[in-house]
């Protein structure tokens, strides 16, 4: 079958259009951030935690929780309607000491804004129950990542940020 110039032109146009459509689901990070909400961790304080794992002998003064405050920034343009609701976070440690999934209270992060979220990464109760194991490990490096969704229900996640832990017994 011999194709005419008109048929070849239409076929070429259709192939180009198909190629463009097939590539639309592979947007770069820059295209994604300009297209909608992008949540990122911009700070962690403290980024190195000295975790006292000493069992408390005073029930009125229990082993303290170790908290870290994270700055979460929504990269969408202000006023674009790209607000995000942060719903959970994951902690994965190289030595497996604090591998947990937590749920802070739902935290809204408006488009173009930063919100501080304080989370307990090592509870006093957990540290007391695992004193020997944590002291045996000594230190760990943990990655933290937050998850949420846009107002339209689309899932979003942050980059991973590292937090260091040193487990000590302070009498």
CATH architecture of the largest domain: Sandwich
What is the mean pLDDT? 80
| CATH secondary-structure class of the largest domain | Mainly Beta
Basic shape: elongated
- CATH topology description of the largest domain: Immunoglobulin-like
**Whole-number tally of structural domains:** 2
Low-pLDDT residue intervals, each spanning 5 or more residues? 1-35
What's the tally of helices? 4
Largest sheet: 7 strands, mixed
Strand content: 35-45%
Helix and strand sequence: HHEEEEEEEHHEEE
Helicity range of the residues? 10-25%
From the helix content, strand content and strand pairing, which structural class follows?
alpha+beta
By DSSP, the count of extended strands is: 10
What is the CA–CA distance across the termini? 89 Å
Characterise this structure.
- Strands 2, 4, 5, 6, 8, 9 and 10 form a 7-stranded mixed β-sheet that branches. This protein has a 3-stranded antiparallel β-sheet with strand order 1-3-7.
- It has 4 helices and 10 strands.
- It folds into 2 domains: 35 residues; 132 residues, Immunoglobulin-like (Sandwich).
- Helix content is 23%, strand content 40%.
- 22% of the residues are buried.
- The chain is α+β, with helices and mostly antiparallel strands and 171 residues long.
Architecture blueprint of SSEs:
Layout: H1 5-23, H2 29-35, E1 39-45, E2 48-52, E3 66-74, E4 84-93, E5 100-102, E6 107-109, E7 114-122, H3 124-129, H4 131-137, E8 139-150, E9 155-157, E10 161-168
Parallel strand pairs: 2-10
Antiparallel strand pairs: 1-3, 3-7, 4-5, 4-6, 4-8, 8-9, 8-10
């Amino acid at each position: 079958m011999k194709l005419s110039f008109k048929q070849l032109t239409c076929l070429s146009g259709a192939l180009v259009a198909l190629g463009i459509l097939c590539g639309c689901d592979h947007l770069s990070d820059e295209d994604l951030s300009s297209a909608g909400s992008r949540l990122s961790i911009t700070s962690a304080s403290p980024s190195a935690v000295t975790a006292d794992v000493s069992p408390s002998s005073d029930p009125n003064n229990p082993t303290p929780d170790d908290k870290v405050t994270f700055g979460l920034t929504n990269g969408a343009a202000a006023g674009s309607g790209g607000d995000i609701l942060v719903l959970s976070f994951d902690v994965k440690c190289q030595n497996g000491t604090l591998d947990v999934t937590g749920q802070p209270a739902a935290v809204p992060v408006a488009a173009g804004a930063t919100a501080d979220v304080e989370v307990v990464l090592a509870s006093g109760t957990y540290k007391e129950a695992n004193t020997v194991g944590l002291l045996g490990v000594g230190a760990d490096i943990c990655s933290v990542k937050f998850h949420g969704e846009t107002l339209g229900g689309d899932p979003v996640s942050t980059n991973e940020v590292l937090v260091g832990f040193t487990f000590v017994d302070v009498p």
